[in-house]
Amino acid sequence: MIHPRPRWLVQRGGLASRYARDSGVVDMRRVHPHRIGKVRISQVRQSPIHPVRGTGFRMAVLTIVARTGSHQSPGHPPAYLANRTMPTSVERVYLLGAGSSASAGAPLIKDFKERAEEIVLRDGSRVNPLMGDAIASWNTTASAANVEEYYVLVDLLARLNGSGQSQRAVEGVRYLIAKTLELSMVGGISEIHKKFVHKVWDISQGRRDFAIITLNWDIAVDNAAYTHSQFSLDYGYEKARSFHGDPDRGRPKLFSVLKLHGSLNWWVCQNEECQTLWYTEGEKDVPLYWEKEETRLCRTCGSILQPLMVPPTAQKFESSQKALSPMRSIWKETREAMVNCRDLAIIGYSFPPTDVQFRFFLLEALSNNHNLRKILVISSPKIGSRRLEFEDSYDTAFVQSPHRQKLDFAYDGFEAWVESGMPF
Which domains are assigned to the chain? Predict the structure, then answer.
């Protein structure tokens, strides 16, 4: 509901608006965050009592004071502002694991070291020596471990030793992951991810009653979203800013992509009072952090920026204290989508033992979902004992879940599922 400028009404039962909350004017716990600079609360009203919940929610009339990085007049709200309210119901959530990126060139977890070794042999002059050192240490200390398991080991040793050498080993693994993905996914925009993004939008008919949640660092979905003319990306954090300027480009609708482990194009401000999340559109530029000597600075406050890549371990938030604000917001929006969705598609994910935190996070959220109809697990083809082991991993994870009987499995793979119209 738009009021005459420069004021408009925003109503939402959800997360807190950082700017509204920090203004100290009023408790805004029931107002959703908005991707704007500063906000002044002009008026607060209480809605009528909800006939089902028996509660009301606050409605706030906000006045834009300034919006960082925007050339729009404060009197003209960005086109997407009134649309950043989450829908009252979430029809479908798409959870993407590593298998969903394989079609775009990303190596599977079990093949990561082999792909990294190939890159060092082929493109040794193009990579930082950190990568070669990381591979040598990997082969010496835990050659049978996959990349996530080795990341956990290196992170643990760094905590125990606290030495510069141990921290260098952690940086080496982070760089290895980033560079391997960068040089493995070089074919431009993934056609299958483009079809996936467009089909998600078509199914929702522009209602935005969906969320894409990804555990991957790559930007295959992000790049695919830029090919659509009707929406701009929403990363689930009100202080996300593009290095290329206003991401709106006249597109009034939003497309939610929640990246729980960060991204190869995300940089977070190290100033705890700022914590702006900067992203580069269409470029996996995080490897530059280890390859170039210049420091990238925040365009909001001038503080140092660092890559936001969160390890898939139980210490993911402890390892990212400087990024706590964006990750908290993204994980909260993820939980809200999980609690409210009616259908859940899990694509290319096998509950790795290293990511215990996400497993329990998912199960806790779903235990509070009383509307869930179906959980569809889309996997690459599996037969015999491999199929039984895969389904057992889900049965074990959901053993105490009220939704265990709603599990269904499709073994055509991500590409075939998308090509067939993404049936549920």
Answer: 7-76 (no CATH), 90-103+189-262+323-419 (3.40.50.1220), 107-184 (no CATH)
CA distance 343 to 372: 6
Q: Which of 263, 259, 397, 340 is nearest to 93 (CA)?
A: 340
| Calpha distance 296→289 (Å, rounded) | 8
Task: Tell me the C-alpha distance between 251 and 67, whole Å.
Answer: 18
Q: What is the DSSP string of 28-72?
A: -TTS---S-SEEEEEEEEEPPPPTTTS---EEEEEEEEE-TT--S
* Per-residue pLDDT reduced to its tens digit, 43-61: 433 433 333 333 443 333 3
Output the six-digit token pair for 148.
């996530």
pTM exceeds 0.85, yes or no: no
Strand 240-242: give its sheet, edge to edge. Answer: 240-242, 277-279, 262-269, 305-309
380 band by pLDDT with thresholds 50, 70 and 90: very high
Q: Are 351 and 98 a contacting pair, CB within 8 Å?
A: no
Q: At what angle do helices 147-161 and 129-141 cross, to 10 degrees?
A: 90
Strands 277-279 and 240-242: parallel
Tens of pLDDT, residues 215-242: 999 999 999 998 888 888 899 999 999 9
